[in-house]
Amino acid sequence: MGDEGAWLRSLVGDVTDRTPPGRPMSVQDHARALRPLVAAFATDVADRIQTDVPAYAGEPDGRRRDVIAHAVEQATHRFLDTLDGLPHRDRGVDEMFQAMGRAEASDSGDLAAMRAALRLAATVTWDNLRRANPEQPLTDETRGQLADGLFGYIDHLVEQAEKGFAAGRRAIQNDRGQARARLADKLLTGRHRGPLDAVDPQVWAPPEWVVVVVSEPDEQRSIDVATLALDHLVVRHDQRVAVIADAKQTLAVTAAFEAAGTRAAVSWPVGPKLVPSAYRWARRALDLVRRGVIPEQPLIECRDHRTQIWLHSEPALRQRMCQDMLKPLLAETPNSREILSQTLLVWLETRDSAPAIAAHLGVHAQTVRYRWKRINELFGDDLHDPEFIVQITMLLKASVPLWQAGDQSDFERFREEESA
């Protein structure tokens, strides 16, 4: 590499010879004198960077060294532009360092190496300027101007690199976010066909167990989707926010919905291949809250309501079975229908005695006996058929909460079919 300061000492000596007697060299004198030797200086600095900054190491005559030398040369010229006081063309240095910052966002993931390289460039430059001409040292004023200008300019270049780096990270995150949203949509709808272990790990590394958290429709505006998307698969789907998360991070995800005041349902943990099912369960749980089957609460734990989610998995089938198997109940008056269905369901679930059922319902045992007599009149020998008992138990468990919540659709359908 040779004597790094020799070229500068020689040049400053020439400028000194041409400086009128009695007038010390000015900052402008230094800047104009340095122009012809910028290329050699840039080569020296590039060599030092490749030697001292491991991230930029490479062949001394390779492309990387040429890129570094070009950047140093253009930045140095631009620095001299700020010193000599003359108008100069736009060299595109800011844009170049922003582009370098964007490249670092993709390659290294941080700016540590570039900051180190710029600090080294500043140190080498200042050492050369400071030691250039021992016979005629820089005045304190000139030295101060050069130091302020140099280190201020280095700070400016760092800011440009940081600006480019931030833009690069945003672009990467945006691209990654779009890829993650597309993957989330395919997983939720069951349209993902490839093996999950083939998914780009930068997009998603499938955990062993996942949960699906789903917001109420039209209640997602206050959810911090951007923050959730940093660690989980997040997509707006069917007017909902849906999150596919590692089951180990369930509390962190549900806390975000609760903090936003948005009702959500969370599935129990499943393997990633069962995401479409978990999504259906969570949506069904929210629907059952709206219909009054599941009590209203900020967070719906699907695990706590698996029976109702299962029983309501086929609404059309429940409706048809209701019309076929509960026809005697549907024909009763509203008051009779309510008390008989409650009594029958308690008996089917407990098989307790009349006094025990009465205690459960808060009525007299004789009242239960009367009701049971009426139930036997309605269903007769079917109450001794094991298959009928199983089906009517599930049917009443699914239907009675609907009726109690005010859903009259079963009775309206019964009247329509009876009058047809």
Mean pLDDT: 83
CATH architectural type of the largest domain: Orthogonal Bundle
Which spans have pLDDT < 50 for at least 5 consecutive residues? 1-19
- Largest beta sheet: what is the strand line-up? 2-3-1-4-5
CATH fold node name of the largest domain: Globin-like
Return Rg in Å.
39 Å
Total domains: 3
The first-to-last residue Cα distance is: 101 Å
Quaternary state reads single chain
The assigned structural class equals mainly alpha
Fraction of residues in β-strands: 5-15%
Spatial shape: rod-shaped
* Helix fraction by DSSP (H/I, runs of at least 4): 55-70%
**What's the tally of helices?**
18
User: How many strands appear in the DSSP assignment?
Assistant: 5
Specify the CATH class of the largest domain: Mainly Alpha
Q: What is the H/E string? A: HHHHHHHEHEEHEHEHHHHHHHH
Question: Describe the biggest sheet?
Answer: 5 strands, mixed
Domain PucR-like N-terminal: 30-188
Protein name: PucR family transcriptional regulator
Domain PucR C-terminal helix-turn-helix: 341-398
Pfam families: HTH_30 (PF13556), PucR-like_N (PF25906)
In short:
The chain is mainly alpha-helical and 420 residues long. Helix content is 64%, strand content 6%. The protein contains 18 helices and five strands.
